[in-house]
Amino acid sequence: MAKSQDEETRILLENIARAISQRGQTIHGRKKIVELQAKSGVSLHDDASSETYTPNSIDSLNHFLIEYSKLCPASRLTVKILAYQNSVTVPEKLEKKRKSLIDRLREPSSFFDNL
Length: 115
Prior knowledge:
The chain is an all-alpha fold. The protein is built from 6 helices and no strands. It has one domain. The chain is globular and about 60 Å long.
């Protein structure tokens, strides 16, 4: 029986999320990663052969990747690299360039307009 494209994408995203979860526990601490999993509704520690196992949705996995990428610039880059290596499209939120402090300082400020 062939797997659907969505199922293949879900499996790839889950593999990326598992790798990121393991890396993140080493760098950011277990507590922080467990909080991110709970916030995004992702369960990465279930045994797939268990009776209570339910697969994670693509939306919840994408939410986990977005939340993880917010931890630091290296986390964001890791998510993007793993997605590229696995030929998975990253969530649109990760594609947008973030403004640096220099970019923000160069923008005209409305602070003095109201004086």
